[in-house]
Amino acid sequence: MELETFDRFAQMVYEISGISLSEKKQALVTARVGKRMRTLGIQDHREYLKRLESPGGEQEVILFLDAISTNVTSFFREASHFDFVREMHAEWLASGQRRFRYWSAACSSGEEPYSLAMTLADLVTGYDVDSRILATDICTEVLVKAQGGIYPIDRAEGIPEEYFSRFLKVRSINGATSFEVKKHLRDQVVFRRLNLSRPPFPMTGPLDAVFCRNVMIYFDDAVRRTLLAEIKRVLKPGGFLITGHAESLNTLSDGLTLVRPSIYRKN
Ligand SMILES: C[S@@+](CC[C@H](N)C(=O)[O-])C[C@H]1O[C@@H](n2cnc3c(N)ncnc32)[C@H](O)[C@@H]1O
Fold it and tell me: Helices 26-40 and 45-53 sit at what angle, rounded to 10 degrees?
């Protein structure tokens, strides 16, 4: 792909998703765009760009974004975050709180919100609580996987053993072993498509905690700033924003206090 064509793709990706693609990503973008083009039988990158920009190209834009996005995730990724939520949730329960709202803001294929759901379900046994997790992503392909809640068995790494029989069911289809998130846990999570670069968001809050992990690294400061303003709007005072371990808000942490590495409390 010529640099000029890459720049047009990068500009389009930025406009529709807020993801900044540096020139270092040229090979990656070429490979991912190439996959879509082969499916459509298109040989020329400029022709594919035209298709994306043409009236009626909206559906292809969604599939293009699906192809471009990086969806790496795992169950109980950065496990200390779930330990932290366990601590806070137990405190809130002890103080009499019975309504809980969490948001997994870039949930990918569901491992993050389901890890959260297992953590919370473990704590609330015996309490009459109203607890819900909203899980959103821009990528439609991963949302379908997330809703299905079925994963190859090798994705089970990281899931505490005691959770396995309570929340998951092992199944074998055509000789391949997988596991399924049980319905009572799936029902705790609502999945929706939401573009984090397009505020305002439809939620009103107040939310107890927002997981916004390993997605802000793809955004520039302008997109991060508007996203953080929205997260602060929906968080309750004393609620938490949890980011990826490799992410730092630096000068953008206005109105938030860092309480542990990668965990911020709304003032
Ligand atoms: C690397 S995954 C992180 C998944 C999970 N939060 C974790 O830490 O394991 C990044 C996710 O962000 C999503 N994403 C990228 N840009 C987005 C946007 N503008 N709005 C919503 N989700 C976005 C991608 O589709 C992808 O699923």
Answer: 80
Instruction: Report how far residue 134's alpha carbon sits from residue 138's, in angstroms, rounded to the nearest whole number.
Output: 14
- Looking at 35, 68, 101, the residue that finishes a domain is 68
Domain that holds residue 128: 80-151+182-266
CA-closest residue to ligand 1 atom 27: 108
Total count of domains within the chain: 2
Report residue 17 as tokens.
């998703």
The pick from 28, 69, 72, 192 for probing ligand 1's pocket by mutation, whose C-beta has the most ligand atoms within 8 angstroms, reads 69
Sheet containing strand 168-173, edge to edge, reads: 150-152, 176-181, 168-173
pTM (2 d.p.)? 0.96
Residue pair 219/20 in contact by the 8 Å Cβ criterion: yes
In this prediction, residue 251 carries a pLDDT of 87
Q: Which parts of the chain sit beneath pLDDT 50?
A: none
Name the β-bridge partners of 117: none
Q: Cβ-count burial of 149 within 10 angstroms (0-12 exposed, 13-18 middle, 19+ buried)?
A: buried
